[in-house]
Amino acid sequence: MARHNLAHVKAGTLALAPEVARVPAAHYVDPARFQRELERIWRRLPLMLACSAELPRPGDYKAITAAGVPVLIARGGDGALRAFVNMCSHRGAQLVLEGTGHAKRFSCPYHAWTYDERGALVGISSAAEFGEIDETCHGLTPLRLAERAGLVFVLLDPASPLDIDAFLCGYDALLAEFGFESWHVAGRRELAGPNWKIAYDGYLDLYHLPILHKNTFGSSFPNRALYYAFGPHQRVDSPNPLLLKLAERPEPEWDVRYLLGGVWTVFPHVSIASFDAGGRGVLVSQLFPGPGPLESTTVQTYLTEKAPNDAERAAIEKTFELLGYVVREEDYATGLRQQRALATGAKSFVLFGRNEGGGQRFHRWVDHLLCLDDAALASAFPGEIA
Hints:
Mean pLDDT: 95
Largest sheet: 7 strands, antiparallel
Oligomer: single chain
Structural class: alpha+beta
Strand content: 25-35%
CATH topology of the largest domain: Naphthalene 1,2-dioxygenase Alpha Subunit, Chain A, domain 1
Low-confidence stretches: none
């Protein structure tokens, strides 16, 4: 990727899509299509639901709701992470509130049925009076999980035929160069946003940076993009003149930290962008659909390579607040107004230019996955959509 980037720096060119693409405006606002997206994308594909840094110790857990499914992720005494539906087998109450914590057992707040870190039912209150059941058949519902590159992927549908590693298309091997396993959580928040695809379009869009963000941070960024695809996952970066200095040295001496810039997106809902305030850090954005097509929630987690000192923490907090403002007041405020206009039906299509190939590819993958049955989904990755 660095060699490709350098070639465009030297030539002053971009890799452009073959033509301008049109996406139906209704795709952003139609309730029936949104329900199909929930069923065929969000509940059949692995979602990145946690950073390993959020659950570093045995006994750590995280509870989160994704696409309407309450999920409990727990790190066992053996160091392995496991995921379950956050639902008691007795009457369906959620075991723990959303957030992170530490526990070796989980006791339901409704009737105190208790489960261990592996999801086994290990205690029924007033068991003699309750009646005889086979406890081994009433553990928590497990969900498939894979911890890769310091990120935690979970499949919401236990019946999904998809293999998590096949879905990642080798992209996790590149993300592993960050070494997120040993990084630190410096901040976390949630932001309300527009339709999930409007929000995701922004992850892949450098075209708007010096325009929409001209009064915050965008004036220092070019609006030119290079895209690198690994199945549906994409990295977007600008032609980077700083790489010319690396080219003066043999490639084995190139510092990988300078090769990891840009924005790394994980389909269908994650963006990882690098920042240097208070030391090396990244903003991890996890996008989740809301209850309808016009709503979404984004979880922003700021990770730092090293635990910050007081001065570094102050710089990180300042940057984190700025990024929250930029997304809330510029990106998502614009997106909310955008979807209100799209809902009028005044325009049949929106356009993605030849310089917006990442957005074109994203929408092709969405359309493709909505058409696949479970049997076809199992072999859909890796691949590229024409």
